[in-house]
Amino acid sequence: MPRQHKAEVDERILDAAAALFARHGFEQTSLKSLADAVGLSKAGLLHHFPSKEALFEAAWEQSRVLCRHVVELVSPMPAGPARERRSLELLTDYALDRPGMVSLLFRSMTAPDEDPQQAQDELLLNEMFVIDPQAELPRAIRIVGALSAMAVLTLLANQEGGDKTTWRPLILATCYDALGHREA
After folding, report:
1. Among the ranges 67-81, 123-137, 149-163, which has the highest mean pLDDT value?
2. How far apart are CA 110 and CA 123, in angstroms?
3. pTM (2 decimals)?
4. pLDDT of the residue at 56
5. H-helix or E-strand containing 27?
6. Contact 9, 2 (CB under 8 A)
7. Mean pLDDT within 88-110
8. Which part of the chain is the HTH tetR-type domain (predicted)?
9. Helices (H), 25-136
10. CATH of residue 115
11. How many structural domains compose the chain?
C-alpha cells in the first residue's frame, strides 16, 4: 500500500474529527474516539495535532475555508437561481468528498453554543445565497431546508458507499426543489 503524505493524512484526520465533533459535540468527543476513527493511537494523533482543542479548531477552520471558497467562486455571479444552483453544486461536491467538514459547518445551525464564530458562518451562507434572513424569512427557511437536505443526503450517500455520481444529480434536484426553483 502506498504511503500517504502528511497533508493527505491530516485531511483524513480533520474530516473524521469534524464528523465526530458534528455528531457528538466537543465535550462528548474523546481523544480516543478521534484516534480510533482514523486508525491511530492517541500518541499518533497527537503527533499530527497537539491537542483535542487544536484538532477542533483546525476542523472548524477547514470547514470555513471550504465555505469561503464557495463564496469566492459564486460572488461574481448575480443573485438568483443560477448562483444558488452553483453554490449547491459546489457544496454538494465538497460534502460528497468531505462529509465530516460539511457536517461540522452545518452544526452551527443546530448547536450554536459549540461555535463562538457562528455569526461568521451564517454571514458566509447569507453571502453565498444573497439573503437577509430577517427580511426574507420564508426564503431563509427554504435555504436552510435545501442545505439540510444536502447535508443529510450526502451523509447517506457516503454511508451507503454507493456511486456518488448517481447520488449527486438526485441530491441537487432535491435541494433545488427545496429552494422553490424549477429544474433548468
Report:
1. 67-81
2. 16
3. 0.80
4. 92
5. none
6. no
7. 82
8. 7-67
9. 31-37, 42-48, 52-74, 81-97, 99-110, 118-129
10. 1.10.357.10
11. 1
